[in-house]
Every structure is written in C-alpha cells, then in structure tokens.
Amino acid sequence: MDIKSNSLYNQMQSMSLQAMGNKLPVANGDSIGVGNVGQPNQSTSNFGNMLTDALKNVNDLQKDAGAKKMAFEMGDSNVTLAQVMVASSKSGIALDATVQIRNKFVEAYKEIMSMPV
C-alpha cells in the first residue's frame, strides 16, 4: 500500500467499492460502476451518524435489560425470567461487540499515527 496525501482516502474508497461489488449507489436507486471513484458518494450515510446510532442502540438495549431486571425484581407478573435473561444476554453481547469495535479503532488509530508522513 502506497500512502500519500489523498492516497489513503482513495484506497479506503476503493476497498469499500470492492466490498459493495464495485457499485456506487445513487439517489434514484440505480448504481454507478467503478468509473466514478474520484467523486465522493453523497448518498451514503455519514459514518459518524451510523456510529452514533449504533451506540444509541446499545444504550437502549442496556436500558431495556435494566428495566426488565428491575420489573422482575419488583414482582411484575408481566415480565418473566426468560425475558430478563434474553434482554440481559442481548445487551451483554452488544456491549462486548462495542468494546471489540472500539479496540479495533484504537488499534487502527495507533497504526495510522505511527506511519511516517
């Protein structure tokens, strides 16, 4: 991999295209071939928004599990032990996945920061 000023961005964009089957989505639902790689893709979601939504989802799962635990402990007959265990497992798995993603981001950041400019 050759690292230059805009080379890293272009490489990331080309890898993204390869992952999507060499097609760029367009606002009207069609797809554009690889020939338009130099143009930024405005129809895709912002990465920051996607990350924020994912973290909100994990937070919601944690809150739901906590609420179900509290309801079960208080004797609510509408909440079963199975529901509490499933909600707790979902939130635990989501948190573990979030921690692993964070670790990968930190690892990638360290690798990028150690690259010579």
Automatic annotation (TrEMBL):
Upper taxonomic lineage: Bacteria, Pseudomonadati, Pseudomonadota, Gammaproteobacteria, Alteromonadales
Similarity annotation: Belongs to the FliE family.
Q: Does the keyword Disulfide bond apply?
A: no
Query: Organism, per UniProt?
Result: Colwellia asteriadis
Q: What is this protein called?
A: Flagellar hook-basal body complex protein FliE
Q: Where in the cell is it found?
A: Bacterial flagellum basal body
Q: Which residues form the signal peptide?
A: none
Keyword Ribonucleoprotein part of the UniProt annotation: no
Q: Which HAMAP family match?
A: FliE
Keyword entries, A-Z: Bacterial flagellum, Cell projection, Cilium, Flagellum
